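Action item from last meeting closed. Structure (403 res):
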């Protein structure tokens, strides 16, 4: 099998697009949904809120299926860092000596900014696991478990690391965090839409994600928030009008009455046109099913890893070859990764670069195929055989990239 039948559902950029782990391409369904919501705005003005009012809540079942949760445990809202701050405001309550937060040194920087702001506010430690140099890229769960002492209040980890594309064992880490008396939160930005999750059954306490990568919701699409049912009796730490109970929201009461479950943790009015992009994009996952996406994704990343081993000995693949441990993208190490990334774009292959020395390639199951993988490897082989074509540009201008 070389292609899933949904490629035609996408409006793909020119060239071979392998950067869907940064920004997913537009979908026909997203365009249709945005146009529909725009027409409602055009024709009905404020009256369109009769339909828009519960739009975020209506998307919960589709999101719940993607992360392995109950619908009342998820809600599309805010941005990933805003959602992380909201969760920390409600869940991070340092008590006595139990104050530290554990995270990866190579976690996505915005997460670390948020986590550090809360530990500094409470005079606590943000305890980072792993080095901050080029080695090692891969995470050892045992190293995380080793620092989960009696002083730890929370553990924050990615489901898939954004640099190496390594999938972490969330069930194991959840057991370890709970055994240590801490709660666990997950950044699913680089995993949602690429692989199945089991947040509820694994016992994960909370999670956040963005919707513009594998979900293809579009730039500015609202992110998402998950909160396990065990925390639903807890009031949000940053209550806002949109998290109020929908049945009485327009009574404008001065006292906050939380909505059901994770919906209570919404803060501001959702951007309807941006939410519509996610609305359309989720329809594809409802049709395909995340298990089929994962199966094909593993085939494509395996093909890419095998080709790198056979044809690109100058390049080191740092993404795990074990399919259980692999996310949706492949990270390749080369000293001139930035220059090679720019040169590949000039050749019509769109990769991603992460300093200092990583190329990230994401053959996405919904719209990439075997030919795309082969084309990328062919182009990289050609460039490595003729370094004069790209070394002169190694110090050139910045390349466009999205986290």
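Sequence:
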């Amino acid at each position: 099998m070389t292609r899933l039948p949904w490629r035609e559902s996408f409006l793909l950029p020119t060239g071979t697009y392998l950067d869907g782990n940064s920004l997913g391409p537009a979908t026909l369904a997203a365009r249709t949904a945005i146009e529909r919501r725009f027409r409602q705005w055009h024709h009905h003005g404020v009256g369109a809120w009769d339909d828009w009012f519960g739009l975020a809540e209506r998307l919960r079942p589709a999101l719940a299926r993607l992360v392995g949760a109950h619908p009342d445990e998820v809600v599309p809202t805010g941005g990933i860092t805003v959602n992380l701050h909201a969760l920390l405001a409600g869940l991070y309550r340092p008590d006595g000596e139990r104050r530290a937060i554990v995270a990866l040194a190579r976690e996505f920087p915005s997460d670390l900014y948020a986590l550090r702001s809360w530990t500094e506010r409470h005079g606590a430690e943000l305890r980072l696991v792993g080095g901050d140099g080029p080695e090692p890229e891969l995470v050892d769960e045992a190293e995380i478990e080793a620092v989960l002492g009696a002083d730890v209040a929370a553990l924050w980890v990615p489901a898939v690391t954004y640099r190496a594309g390594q999938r972490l064992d969330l069930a194991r880490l959840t057991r370890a965090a709970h055994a240590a008396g801490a709660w666990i939160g997950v950044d699913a930005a680089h995993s949602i839409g690429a692989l199945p999750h089991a947040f509820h059954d694994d016992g994960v306490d909370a999670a956040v994600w963005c919707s513009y990568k594998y979900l293809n919701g579009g730039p500015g699409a609202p992110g998402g928030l998950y909160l396990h049912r065990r925390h639903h009796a807890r009031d949000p730490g940053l209550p806002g009008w949109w998290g109020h109970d929908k049945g009485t929201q327009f009574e404008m009461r001065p006292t906050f009455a939380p909505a059901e479950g994770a919906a209570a943790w919404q803060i501001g009015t959702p951007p309807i046109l941006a939410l519509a992009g996610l609305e359309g994009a989720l329809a594809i996952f409802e049709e395909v099913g995340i298990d089929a996406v994962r199966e094909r994704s593993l085939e494509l990343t395996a093909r890419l890893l095998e080709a790198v081993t056979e044809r690109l000995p100058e390049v080191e693949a740092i993404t795990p070859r074990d399919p259980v441990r692999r996310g949706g993208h492949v990270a390749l190490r080369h000293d001139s990764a930035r220059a090679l990334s720019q040169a590949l774009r000039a050749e019509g292959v769109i990769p991603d670069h992460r300093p200092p020395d990583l190329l990230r390639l994401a053959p996405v199951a919904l719209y990439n195929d075997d030919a795309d993988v082969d084309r990328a490897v062919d182009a990289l082989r050609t460039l490595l055989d003729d370094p004069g074509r790209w070394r002169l540009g190694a110090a050139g201008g910045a390349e466009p990239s999205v986290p």
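Note appended to the action item: Residues 29-287 form a domain with the Aspartate Aminotransferase; domain 2 fold (CATH 3.40.640.10).
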